Structures are given as structure tokens and as C-alpha cells.
């Protein structure tokens, strides 16, 4: 359905809700102010106040949102009063503006509420400068602010309400839809001609990344959106199972049509080589026909909402797919095709588990023995699951704390922006300050600030051109201008997470319309807007470079070290549990790894940006991140399998895995020490395959009975991935004993 596709593109409908809530608050404010006979200037002030009061508040719980909104009103009134009182005191006013900026950024250390109050203080002070607030106009301006906050509250809590439980439910629906989309692409992969394969793989990579994004968003909403911690842990487990099994199925399908086993990196690195036979064509043998049929059946099971699981036909499909978890139910076929059927069985199991977690007990009258066994496994897992761990607090202090450092940087950049802005215009210098402020939001390194400043300038330039055209068309039609302003504000919020340049375009076009409403529009004003934006962006970059700089290399090295540390934690804990050791919160550790990897991916954007002149470095960074994503995928799979050990009938502990785990842990420690420049020498150790290593213990047979072949495969791929990280990180790799003997 079209709506499902839209919901999948906007997980939880968070962007749609934010845009509708903001536009609704602004529209209601304009209606109330118009009924009161307010002039256009104060209508603009009320509308912008409603926008600020709506988008600034990010608290998850409804009661926290109400408290922050109530505290924001006196902050807004105080900012407006001080702006009016200091309007004639240029130097004092500028000094206070800089102090306000410092405080607004510093307050981010106090969480969502501190961030919101700081943002409200800055934005309302800027708004007062924009509308030219004076002491005589304060009563009317205060009224506009009160109405703006009141309308924001009405829309937030009554018209477009949003509770954590409702958001989580929408996120789960989006996750289900994204799983269905990925399975649909896997069907295309099975039938794709060789010349179509690269495009299908690109689509699969994007779809896999979007599925992972939805899983992380659900993880961030579990605590507030579920009734208790045990329920949150259960959902976390089921979401992880579905994500891992669906991604694994894509890899197995790729192997099923490959001349040799494909590298897992193929699913994470664009243009990675795919070892296909040269004359491969979609096959019509019985096994392939059955595989295509069962992939479509899996898609049907995933695509159906949890509330519509009844019916004998659905039970029959589920029973058949779950039957592939038994070796004797696999159809006669080559090994690669049989692996794909096993993957379908595991994916069907994860779908069943997710439906049980979301919908509770279901009709079991039509269950096959395989389905009954899967339900029993889930019951055992549910008893063993423990609540997730809380993330540790940031122990950095003083200037090492990001908020403190950013506060000093923004303050210095704002001083430069005030000086440069007033040299351009004594009336509209504050645009430079606004740009300097904005480029520091949600950035953590000099490279990120430079890229964001460039995008801001590009969007402003294009928006100014659009503003010129729109202002000429709108003319004196006030309500047409307000309608376009609402449209652009919605577009601004809807596109903000997707493209900062596009968002800046809508912001500038909207401002052009506001200038028209205030009768201060001219072509010179829009040119000045571009110049002030350029000055502000330049001042932000200068401050980031000169004041307590955090270079992109340093930032990425810190995050890379964190990723490696967490990868080592997940791998070691998973292998320990697979070897018979004590249980731990493996999925909590795995999600911590995913979060760190996402932060690293974001921090490398300046290094992979299309306009970067360092082409070779860009390719290296992309390869490194893709390899880390591959390692994280196998670590997640090991963690999910290890949690089955205490209560599974098919996966038992094997102490022989401990030796393989030691080598992987050692290699990760060497890589982390090299990245962290801890002065620790050492080489990455490479050896024969994990299965071969386990045979060397004297048993002579691979451990197929105690630990599944799937576990060995993930261990082997993780081992290869960790060794592969040594090359882009310039870490020496020790030669194998056999290679040394040959050289000797």
C-alpha cells in the first residue's frame, strides 16, 4: 500500500507529526491574533513564537513536555523584555546577546529540557530583533507570545497528541513494513539478470540501512513506550532477531546464486565484487521455484499486521516455512539453495516471535510440530530475558565536556559574526549571528561545521532566488503569503532530517515572504541575507578552527576507538556465553555497538563528502566503515545466537570456541590501542579458519553437533573482518607459521 511505503520512509511518522504540529500551532495562532485585530508585525511574532515553542521541546514523556513548555514561557518573556530594553544600548545589547548564546549552548549539558530552554531564549531574542521590539510595544508583544505558547500547547496536547506508546506502535509498523520491503528486494535478487544485479544490491543496501535505522529508533523509545522493563527487553530481543535473520537471508540468497561464497562486505560496501557465474540466468528447477514461492510466502507473513494472523491458510504457510529449520524437511538441492531455505525458516521464526511479543498468545490449533517447538523456544527465552543495562554517564568535565567547549566556540564565533554583520548592515547584523549559531547545532568537529556551513549557504542562495520570485507574485496578498509560509514551514520540518541544504532553502524562501508581510522586502535585503549568511558561516568555521578545536581526524579516531571497544565487548561476551560462560545482556551491548557505529558514520561525512579533494581517503573511509558494519552484523548475530544457549534445544555451548574468541579479542585490542595511540605495540594475528582451528584440538571433527554451522560462519567472518581492518588502519599483521616456514 502507498501509505505503508510512506510510513516506512518516515518511521513512526515523526517528521510528519512534527510538521503538522508546528503548522497547526502557527495556523491557530494566526487565527486567534486575526480575531483580536492584531497588526501584521505582531502576527508574525506570534506565529514565530508558536513555531519555536513547538519545535524546541523534545521531551519524550507528555508530562515533561508540559513542564518544559511552562518554563519556556517566562524565558521567552524575559528574552523579549531584555531585547527591547537593550535595543538602544548597542554595546551592552551585543554583550548580553553573546552571554545569552553562551548560556543557551552550555545548558545543553542538562539534557532535553536545558536544550529546549536555551533554544527558546535564543530564538525569541532573535525574533525580537527581527520585529524591532521596543518598550512601548512590549504589552502587545507579550500578548502575541502568550497566544503563541498557548496555541502550541493546545495543538501539542489536544489536536496532534503524541504519547510514547503511540510513537512506539507506529515505529513497530514502520519496522514491519521495512522488513517486508527488504524481503521483496531479496525476491528481486533471486531473479535478477547479471546486468541488473548491481542495482538490486544497491537497493538492498539502502533498504538494509533503513531497517537498521528503524530498529535503532525503536530501541530509543522502548523504555518510555512499554509498560515495564521486561516487556522492553522482550521487544528488543524480537526486533534484533527479525533484523538479523532478514539481513542474513539476503546474504544466503546471494550465496545461492554465486559461483563461490560471497563476502559479507558485499551487503555493506557499494560496488563490492560479487562472484557470480558468467552465464547465470534465473533457474526454473524445482528447488528454485520452491525457493521463490516460499520467499513470497515469507513476504506475505511479514506484510500482514499482527492482528490479522488468523486463518488456516496463514497457519499452513507459517508451518511450512518453520519446517525448514529441520534438516529432514529441506528439499533436495545444492548446498547454497538449502542454506537459503534454512534462512527462510529462521526468518519465519523471527516473524513469529515478533508477533508473539506484540500480540500475545495466538491460536495454536493448526500448529505443526516445528511451529510448536518454536513457540516453546520463545517461552523459554522469555523467562530468561533480563532488562537492558542503562548507558553510562559522560564523565568528562571542564573544557573536555562537549557542551562547554561548544559554548566557548559559539560565543567567539558570535562576536566575530556581530562585528562582520554590523560592517555589512547595522540593521540586520543578527542574520550572521543566527547562521553562526545554527552551524554549531548537532555538530562535533571542524569538518562537520564546515560542511554544514556550506550546505546552509547553498540553501540560502537558492532560497533567496525563490524568495525574489515569490515576493513578486504574492504582492500585497497577506493571507496568501501566510499560507505559503505555513507550507514552507511544514516542508522545512519534514525535510530537516533528510537534507540540511533543502531545509535552508525553505527557511530562506519563508523569510522572504515574512519580509514581504513586514513591508521591508527588496532585492537588496535578500542579497544582504546571503552575505550575512556567508559571514556567519565563515565566523563559525574560524571559531571552530581557532577556539578549542576538535579536528575531524581526532573526532573520528575517538569514535572509532569506541566502536572497536564495543565490538570487542560484544564479541567477547558472545563467545564467552557460547563457550558455556555466564549470561550477560548481549543485545544491550550490541545496541551500544550500533549506536557508536552510527555516530562514527555521521562523523565521517566530511571525509566522504562529494566535494572533498581527498578522493583516495574518501574511498578508504568508506571501506573502513563498511567493514565495521560487516563486523557489527556478525557480532549482532553471535549475540543473538548466544542468548539461545541457556534454553535452546538446538544450540549448545562448546568450550572449544573460547580459543577462537581469545584471538579475535586480542586483534580488536591491538586495533583499538593503535587507534587510541596508547603506546601499545603488537600485531594482528591471522590463522586458519575457525573450524580448522577447532579440529586441531584432537577431536578431528568439526563441532557440528554442539554449535551450529551458522555460529562458526559468523565467527569466521568476524575474524576475517577484524583482520581486514588492519590494512586501512596501517596495523601490522603477523605472518602465519606456515608462511614463515616457506620464507625460511
From TrEMBL:
Coiled coil segments of this chain: none
InterPro entries assigned: Memb_transporter_dom (IPR049453)
Chain spans, region Disordered: 358-400
Membrane-crossing residue ranges in chain numbering: 12-34, 66-84, 90-107, 114-134, 140-160, 406-424, 430-450, 457-473, 479-496, 503-521, 533-550
Subcellular location(s) per record: Cell membrane
Ranges where the Integral membrane bound transporter domain occurs: 417-542
Pfam families given in the database record: FUSC_2
Recorded topology in the membrane: Multi-pass membrane protein
Main location: membrane
UniProt keywords, alphabetically: Cell membrane, Membrane, Transmembrane, Transmembrane helix
PANTHER family with a match to the protein in the record: MULTIDRUG RESISTANCE PROTEIN MDTO, P-HYDROXYBENZOIC ACID EFFLUX PUMP SUBUNIT-RELATED
Family: Belongs to the YccS/YhfK family.
Name the UniProt record assigns to this protein: FUSC family protein
Organism for this UniProt entry: Streptomyces glycanivorans
Amino acid at each position: 500500500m502507498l501509505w505503508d511505503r510512506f510510513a516506512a520512509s518516515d518511521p513512526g511518522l515523526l517528521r510528519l507529526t512534527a510538521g503538522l504540529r508546528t503548522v497547526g500551532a502557527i495556523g491557530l495562532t494566526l487565527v486567534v491574533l486575526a480575531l483580536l485585530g492584531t497588526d501584521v508585525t505582531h502576527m508574525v511574532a506570534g506565529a514565530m513564537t508558536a513555531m519555536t515553542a513547538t519545535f524546541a521541546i523534545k521531551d519524550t514523556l507528555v508530562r515533561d513536555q508540559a513542564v518544559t513548555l511552562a518554563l519556556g514561557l517566562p524565558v521567552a518573556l524575559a528574552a523579549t523584555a531584555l531585547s527591547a530594553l537593550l535595543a538602544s544600548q548597542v554595546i551592552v545589547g551585543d554583550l548580553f546577546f553573546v552571554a545569552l548564546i553562551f548560556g543557551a549552548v552550555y545548558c545543553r549539558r542538562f539534557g532535553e529540557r536545558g536544550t529546549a530552554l536555551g533554544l527558546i531564549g535564543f530564538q525569541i531574542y532573535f525574533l525580537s530583533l527581527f520585529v524591532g521590539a521596543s518598550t512601548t510595544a512590549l504589552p502587545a508583544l507579550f500578548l502575541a507570545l502568550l497566544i503563541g505558547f498557548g496555541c502550541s500547547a493546545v495543538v501539542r496536547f489536544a489536536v496532534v497528541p503524541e504519547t510514547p506508546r503511540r510513537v512506539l506502535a507506529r515505529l513497530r509498523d514502520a519496522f514491519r513494513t521495512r522488513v517486508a520491503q527488504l524481503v521483496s528486494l531479496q525476491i528481486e535478487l533471486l531473479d535478477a539478470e547479471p546486468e541488473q544485479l548491481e542495482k538490486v544490491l544497491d537497493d538492498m543496501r539502502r533498504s538494509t540501512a533503513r531497517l537498521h535505522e528503524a530498529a535503532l529508533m525503536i530501541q530509543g523509545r522502548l523504555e518510555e513506550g512499554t509498560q515495564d522493563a521486561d516487556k522492553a527487553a522482550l521487544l528488543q530481543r524480537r526486533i534484533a532477531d527479525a533484523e538479523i535473520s532478514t539481513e542474513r537471508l539476503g546474504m544466503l540468497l546471494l550465496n545461492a546464486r554465486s559461483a563461490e561464497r560471497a563476502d559479507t562486505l558485499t551487503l555493506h560496501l557499494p560496488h563490492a565484487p560479487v562472484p557470480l557465474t558468467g552465464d547465470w540466468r534465473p533457474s526454473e528447477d524445482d528447488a528454485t521455484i520452491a525457493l521463490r514461492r516460499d520467499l513470497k510466502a515469507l513476504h506475505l507473513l511479514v506484510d500482514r499486521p499482527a492482528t490479522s494472523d488468523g486463518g488456516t491458510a496463514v497457519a499452513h504457510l507459517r508451518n511450512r516455512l518453520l519446517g525448514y529449520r529441520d534438516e529432514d524437511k529441506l528439499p533436495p538441492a545444492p548446498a547454497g539453495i538449502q542454506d537459503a531455505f534454512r534462512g527462510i525458516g529462521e526468518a519465519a521464526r523471527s516473524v513469529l516471535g515478533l508477533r508473539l511479543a506484540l500480540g500475545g498468545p495466538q491460536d495454536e490449533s493448526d500448529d505443526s510440530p516445528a511451529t510448536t517447538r518454536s513457540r516453546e523456544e520463545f517461552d523459554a527465552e522469555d523467562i530468561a530475558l533480563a532488562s537492558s543495562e542503562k548507558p553510562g554517564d559522560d564523565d568528562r568535565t571542564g573544557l573536555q565536556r562537549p557542551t562547554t567547549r561548544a559554548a566557548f566556540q559559539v560565543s567567539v564565533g558570535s562576536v566575530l559574526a556581530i562585528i562582520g554583520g554590523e560592517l555589512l548592515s547595522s540593521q540586520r547584523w543578527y542574520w550572521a549571528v543566527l547562521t553562526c549559531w545554527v552551524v554549531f547545532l548537532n555538530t562535533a568537529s571542524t569538518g562537520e561545521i564546515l560542511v554544514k556551513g556550506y550546505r546552509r549557504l547553498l540553501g540560502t542562495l537558492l532560497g533567496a532566488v525563490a524568495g525574489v520570485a515569490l515576493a513578486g507574485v504574492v504582492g500585497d496578498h497577506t493571507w496568501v503569503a501566510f499560507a505559503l509560509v505555513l507550507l514552507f514551514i511544514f516542508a522545512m520540518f519534514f525535510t530537516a532530517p533528510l537534507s540540511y541544504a533543502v531545509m535552508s532553502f525553505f527557511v530562506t524562501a519563508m523569510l522572504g515572504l515574512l519580509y514581504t508581510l513586514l513591508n521591508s522586502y527588496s532585492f537588496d535585503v535578500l542579497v544582504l541575507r546571503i552575505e550575512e549568511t556567508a559571514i556567519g558561516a565563515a565566523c563559525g568555521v574560524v571559531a571552530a578552527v581557532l577556539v578549542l578545536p576538535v579536528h575531524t581526524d581526532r573526532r573520528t579516531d575517538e569514535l572509532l576507538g569506541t566502536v572497536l571497544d564495543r565490538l570487542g565487548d560484544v564479541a567477547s561476551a558472545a563467545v564467552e556465553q557460547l563457550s558455556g560462560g555466564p549470561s550477560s545482556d548481549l543485545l544491550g551491548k550490541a545496541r551500544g555497538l550500533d549506536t557508536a557505529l552510527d555516530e562514527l558514520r555521521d562523523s565521517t561525512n566530511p571525509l566522504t563528502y562529494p566535494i572533498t579533494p581527498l578522493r583516495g581517503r574518501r574511498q578508504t573511509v568508506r571501506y573502513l566503515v563498511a567493514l565495521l558494519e560487516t563486523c557489527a552484523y556478525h557480532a549482532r548475530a553471535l549475540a543473538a545466537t548466544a542468548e539461545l544457549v541457556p534454553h535452546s534445544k538446538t544450540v549448545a555451548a562448546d568450550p572449544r570456541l573460547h580459543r577462537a574468541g581469545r584471538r579475535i579479542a586480542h586483534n580488536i585490542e591491538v586495533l583499538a590501542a593503535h587507534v587510541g595511540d596508547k603506546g601499545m605495540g603488537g600485531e594482528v594475528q591471522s590463522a586458519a579458519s575457525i573450524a580448522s582451528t577447532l579440529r586441531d584440538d584432537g577431536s578431528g571433527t568439526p563441532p557440528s553437533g554442539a554449535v551450529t554451522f551458522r555460529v562458526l560462519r559468523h565467527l569466521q567472518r568476524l575474524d576475517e573482518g577484524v583482520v581486514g581492518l588492519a590494512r586501512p588502519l596501517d596495523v601490522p599483521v603477523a605472518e602465519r607459521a606456515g608462511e614463515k616456514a616457506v620464507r625460511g
